[in-house]
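Weekly modeling sync, notes
Attendees: S.R. (lead), two postdocs, one rotation student

Agenda item 3: backlog of single-chain predictions. S.R. asked that every request posted to the team notebook include the full sequence so nobody has to chase files. The rotation student volunteered to paste the first one in as an example of the format we agreed on. Action items at the bottom.

Example entry:
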Amino acid sequence: MKAIQLTLIALTLLAVSILCGPIHQNTSVANNEPSGLAISDRIDFENDLIPIFTKFGCNAGACHGAAAGRGEFNLSLFGGNPQADYKAIVRQFAGRRVNLMHPEESLIILKPTAQTKHGGGQVLKEDGEGAKLLHNWIQQGATYETLRHLARVEISPQKHVISNLENPIQLHATAHFSDGTTENVTRWTVFTPEDTSAIEIDAATAIAKVRRRGRHIVLARYLTEVVPIEFIAPLNEVPIQDVHKSDETHTSSESTEPSIDGEILKLLSTLRLPVSPAANDATFLRRVTLDLTGRLPAPDVVTAFLANSGESKRETLVDTLLQSDEFNEYWTLQLAKLLRIRSGRDDSQGALVYHQWLSDQIRDGVGYDQVARTVIMATGDTHVIGPANFYRTVDSSNEQAEFMSELFMGARLRCANCHNHPLDKWTQDDYHGLAAIFAKIEGSGQVVKVKPTGEVIHPATREKAIPRIPGNRFLPADVADGRTELVDWLTGTDNPYFAKAIVNRLWKAMMGRGLVEPVDDFRSTNPATHPELLTALADDFVAHGYDLRRTLKRIALSAAYARSANTLPQNATDDRFYSHALQKPLEPEVLADAISDVLDVPDVYGNEPEGTRAVSLFDPNTESEALDILGRCGRETSCESATEATDGLQRKLHLFNGDLLNARIGVPDSRLDKLMSEGKSSMEILNEFYLAALSRHPTETEQQFWEQHIDVSASANSQRAVLEDMVWSLLTCNEFVTNR
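Predicted structure, as returned to the notebook:
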């Protein structure tokens, strides 16, 4: 009789749990012993059981953490929603996943231990700690108890320089909880290398072994916390000072200005990477002119710069370029690509006025914070008010939230649409809360206006999403227009994303690679190669009025920027630490203009006047076979992640044998035709083309090569075919189509 009464009580408790929800108890843990090891300990569902599901991959995207779940069992991705997980385990499937009378017969135990059919095979041992914790929890009533909340996770070591690759590294994880307790959670922490070929980790012992030299990142995950671990194995066994001593010809005298060169050299020293020598004047002139204006320096400019012996001539050059019309034109293009300015369906007027407005901002030196504020706050007729076209770039409030976060925050908020971001702090509340702000803007027509009734539905709650500043705070649910609060937060001097996002893009434009890559994927688990440098540049950018020109100048005058692209044996594999300059393919618009400049034959773009430059086109849909061949970005999506290959096969074939070059090299009034008409000798023509295309004179070896193929005693006219081949070879060589 007593047994029957106990059974009825147990069934009653289960029914209450299923019908009324989990029972919450306000108990607390005041010791540091691992919970669940003794039956008398109360099991905390969130802090004790969720780590089990994460450790063994149960809530990963490849298993029950997928959006649709697996086998009619759906867990939140990496335990991002513990209450939903509790509901799935205890309430769903008619409560059959837990058996209060016989815990060992619960499906939540039988399946992962493979005692019954399980698509994922055996992931828990029957006598293992994970199975015991699940058993004890069910035995205690399978309640949802939140005894304490995770405050932070401390990983040791979080940054480690490895002197010997043979030495293993023991990883440790310590959880700090809201009640002041701590716990060694190494056994429940998942350590995942970004590159499994570089680092091996024993999941059972948390011992790491580095297999390849370089800088490597390991992600440590416990509950909702993901912490990056940085391993640095010097790329050379010989310390950097010894490398320099061994070859003094490669040692360059460099500035140790702490915010740029000091930080670069500090990491290079740790990695034992020597620096390549400084680039010569001709290389620097071509590089910086292309980077700041998108144009090749004219031959007379090259000649004058090379003849100038002044100590400050590089700084003078940079200042001149920054104040030029060509700078305004080129950097309008750069920001137009970021803003995805393009014509709409049968409507180019909006794109035209948007582009003109942006050009005015660049010319007048308007701070980048004000540019962002203006576009976000813009409303009105898009044919008159250029920045209002910001709201016609994408088609929905969700896409607007994604576009805005990637553009102005460098953050991929889109990953939090269906579930909390698995590698970052962003939640579904952040994503749909930001979308709710933009839902109150009507941008589908020519006139952009506020629509107070606009709303989005939160997929988790099935209710209207509350407007929210991402990662910061909710706004009043009935706010008519939350953009003011959004832009005040975004452009505030203490915003952790805004300044860094644009400074990182400026750095990439000049150096060939961002300090954070990809540039729209800022997160703690994707750390910058030089975090202190990024912070220093961003702080300086803010302190000086968000001035694009100032930051570009500082980068252009750094020793890191001025290094040669020629590598040393010890730094040849470096593709991210700036021991040498990186070769950057010329953008399609820049390359098209460069070809026209060298040939002195302008291309024609749609109905634009002859002589219009490709970098000045406001609409990427402007008709142009040349730009199509060279792989321009259409700006329907981000050009930073465009799939078009700027050095693809089509481009190479046309450069080698297409009309892009061959139809223009020797036509009347071309550079070659004019030089021949002026009576220039073949070698004089050769030198002119080297100055125009490569911004330098031919080397002695190149001079000797051409003298073997050109009859210097004959007239240039008689050598036309050879000279045309010479021009063609210059325009197809790697040195011309890249910025080195």
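Discussion: group reviewed the output briefly. The CA atoms of residues 332 and 358 lie 6 Å apart.
Action items: rotation student to repeat for the remaining queue; S.R. to check formatting next week.
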